[in-house]
Amino acid sequence: MSRILLVEDDEAMAVALQDGFTFEGHEVVRASDGVEGLRLARETPPEILILDVMLPKMTGLDVCKQLRADGSKMPIIMLTARGQEIDKVLGLKLGADDYITKPFSFMELMARVEAVLRRSQPMSTDGRAVVQLGDVTVDIARHQACKNGEPLALTPREFRLLAFFIEHRDEVVTREALLDAVWGYDTIPFTRTVDTHIAKLRKKIEEDPSDPKLLITVHRLGYRLVGSEPAGPLA
After folding, report:
1. d(CA 62, CA 132)
2. Which pLDDT band, with edges at 50, 70 and 90, does 37 fall under?
């Protein structure tokens, strides 16, 4: 059972979603505005936050931004209205793990929740638990990464991306493979989701994100991680 914080100002939708999640065995805490949602998320962080974009008092985008600024790594799924593609882009750039467009079926949202919860768990590699990538050291088992000895603030999604690339180092990994393995489903309407997260990850691990040396783009195919080697454990 997971604790879900649902921040949604549409009472009918909030009740329906709460009933559905409760039936599936989850504990649900509700808030109807952004300020209350942010307070609850900070005071008792849930396993996952389901966050509407359009909220009274504070938008979902601002809530997401504040939580990531706090250093929170809780998984966040954002709910957006049909046609609000700019909100999807902003949500992903601000650190949301996924989004779903209204109207949606409860089973689709449930599948997204399960996928995000599953993918937010640490993943293991083939025995090379600690890997050196240039100036970056990654400890898979401890879910930690450092650059030049300083901790890297990676979101759960970014860490899973990096860990998946480490598992498949020196291989060309397609966007479809990343969506399936890291997001937990095969296709989504917003096809640049992977590229957006790769760009954010590069800003954190590359010396020059505009000229990446570790996470290389393979034209028309996907991406490839190069230059990894075993390393000693992180301090």
Report:
1. 35
2. very high
Q: What angle do CA 28, 50, 101 make, to 5 degrees?
A: 130
Peptide bond into 103 cis (omega under 30): yes
* Most confident of the ranges 64-73, 110-119, 177-186: 64-73
The type of residue at 226 is V
pLDDT tens profile 1-12: 789 999 999 999
Please tell me the distance from the alpha carbon of residue 112 to that of residue 122, in angstroms, as a whole number. 18
- Kindly list the structural domains of the chain, giving each domain's residue range(s) and its CATH number in brackets, ordered by start: 3-119 (3.40.50.2300), 130-230 (1.10.10.10)
Q: Would you state the structure tokens that stand for residue 166, as one six-digit string? A: 């480490």
CA–CA gap between residue 141 and residue 233 (Å, rounded): 10
pTM for the full predicted model: 0.59
